[in-house]
C-alpha cells in the first residue's frame, strides 16, 4: 500500500526538481560562474592608518611581566 503512494510521489518530486533545474538553466542562472567569486575581492588595496606600529606582537624586552 505504501509503494502505491511513495513511488508516484518520488517520481513527481524528481520531475519538480528537473523542471526547476531546466528553468534555472534557461533563465541564465549559470551564465557567470566567476562573477560572484570576483565580486568579493576589493579593487582598491586597503591603506594602513598613519601612526600605527607595524609590529604589534613584539613585547618590550625590559618588561618582565609581558
Number of helices: 2
What structural category arises from helix and sheet content?
mainly alpha
Distance between the termini: 74 Å
What coarse outline follows from CA principal-axis ratios?
Answer: elongated
* Elements, N to C (H/E): HH
Described by strand count, sense and barrel closure, the largest sheet is: none
Q: If you compute it from the alpha carbons, what radius of gyration comes out, rounded to the nearest whole angstrom?
A: 29 Å
Can you give the mean pLDDT? 80
Question: Uncertain regions: pLDDT < 50 for 5+ in a row?
Answer: none
Instruction: Tell me the strand percentage band.
Output: under 5%
Structure notes:
- The structure is a single chain.
- The protein has 66 residues and is an all-alpha fold.
- Helix content is 45%, strand content 0%.
- The chain contains two helices and no strands.
- The chain starts with a helix and ends in a 27-residue tail after the last helix.
- The model has no long low-confidence stretch (mean pLDDT 80).
